[in-house]
Structure prediction request, 212 residues.
Amino acid sequence: MRLRNIPGSREVIAENRWCIPETQKCKGTWHRIFGNENPVHIEIGMGKGKFIMELARQHPQINYVGIEKYSSVLLRGLQKMEEAPLENIRFIRMDAENICEMFDREETDRIYLNFSDPWPKDRHAKRRLTSRQFFKRYDLILKKDGIVEFKTDNVNLFDFSLEEVKEAGWRLDEVTRDLHQDFHMNQGNVMTEYEEKFSAMGHPIYKLIASR
Ligand code: SAM
Prediction:
């Protein structure tokens, strides 16, 4: 998702009370940032943030961090926060390649990846958020019993991800090729913006949950 560049969006984000600047040394300080010891769940590539904001609303005892590469996209999420503020959520505008600069070892409990960019060319495989290179990063920042949850409508990216989970030495805990028809896995499912769009077009939604 890349919206047109919105002039001034970087400045708005820099001053926003829900945004943590990428330059802030927040590694190891997330419990202080939130002012409690609650678990920290993150979504990488949150887009406009519909999914993570709904989770934060439903689970006030969990802290959420939304990560988004583009300020123009993140800005849309921040506008929604102004309308319905939540205390248990923060945002970072950054490329997730640098995620280990922002979170300490085992500082997070769960990572959500939703409708991640497919990067269809083989030579770009390592940019996919479910590549073995990204699982190495997740291995560092996730608690030992932490999990990665991934949803997509893209069968090629999903099949690639199943292989990468195994290559990375992780375990597949749950897998479905039609989430919305899977009674067990669909319980409590919060739809993302892309999920709403693609399921309305009749695409099945694929989901996996991985752990170590
Ligand atoms: N998760 C949302 C959903 O399901 O509706 C948005 C999906 S959109 C296809 C993918 C989003 O991930 C885009 O907003 C994109 O900017 C962001 N993104 C892609 N690669 C990223 C990266 N390396 N770091 C942070 N955000 C990234």
